[in-house]
Structures are given as C-alpha cells and as structure tokens.
Amino acid sequence: MYSMINLSDTATNLVRRPIDGNVITASGRLIPQPPWIIPQDRATTIAYDQWLIDQSRSEAIETGEDWMVCRLAGLDAGFMDAALRHLLSDFLFGLPAPEFEARSRIGLLREE
Fold first, then answer.
1. Is residue 105 part of a domain?
2. Residue 112 DSSP code
3. d(Cα 75, Cα 79) in Å, to the nearest integer?
4. Is 84 a domain residue?
5. What is the mean pLDDT of residues 59-70?
6. Residue 97 carries which DSSP code?
C-alpha cells in the first residue's frame, strides 16, 4: 500500500536563481536581482528594503494593483518591519521570505 506524502513535510522555500542579473516575479516579469544583505550591516538591509519597495511599486503599476500602489506611497526603507517585508515579498514572489541563490551579477566582478 502506498502512503500519501504530507506536503508540509516536503515544503521548502524555493530558491530564486538569478539569470543574467535578473529574477522572475510570480507574475512572470524579469526584475533586477536584489542586493545582498550582509548580516550586521544595516545599510545592506536598507538597500534590500528599498529594492523591495521599488520593485513592488513597479509590479503593482504593471499589474494594475492600485491598492498596492497606495500602500507603497511614502514608505521609507529605513523603517520597514518584518511584516511589511513579508507582504511585499509575497506580492512579488508568492513567498513571504524568498531565498535567492548567491550569484554575482554579470559585469560587476573584475579580474584583478
């Protein structure tokens, strides 16, 4: 007899793999890959949050989600909390805390 697999046992936070410096949103749009967050460096978290706000705004405009455009009005990346970060990530990727594969952007690394 076959046993059913419980999906919660196999669920994973899918990794978003950048291709040529872009990732794909849940709607199928290509957007620039996010900046890396370096633990203990608040400036990198703020840069990521600003990227999340900017990309969510573009996504909302492209998909006609006026409610999200209004929600994003006046947001300051320096004051974003985890709940809002999860909302915007879910809006963009269908996951509240997506993980991105660490790949360098083409052209950003120089041979020394």
1. no
2. -
3. 8
4. yes
5. 94
6. S
Cα 56 to Cα 15, 70, 103: the distances in Å are 19, 11, 22
* H or E segment and range at residue 30: strand 30-32
Q: pTM for the complete prediction?
A: 0.77
Stated as kind and residue range, the H or E segment containing 15 is strand 15-16
Number of domains in the chain: 1
C-alpha torsion 38→39→41→44, nearest 10: 40
pLDDT at res. 10: 43
**Structure token digits, residue 29:** 């749009």
Q: Determine the structural domain holding residue 19 and report its residue range.
A: 12-100
Domain-located, residue 25: yes
Q: Give the SS3 label for residue 18.
A: coil
- For the segment 11-57, what is each residue's pLDDT rounded down to a tens digit? 445 557 788 888 889 998 999 999 988 889 999 999 999 999 999 99
Residues 3, 91: Cα–Cα separation, whole Å: 34
Whether 35 is in a domain gets the answer: yes
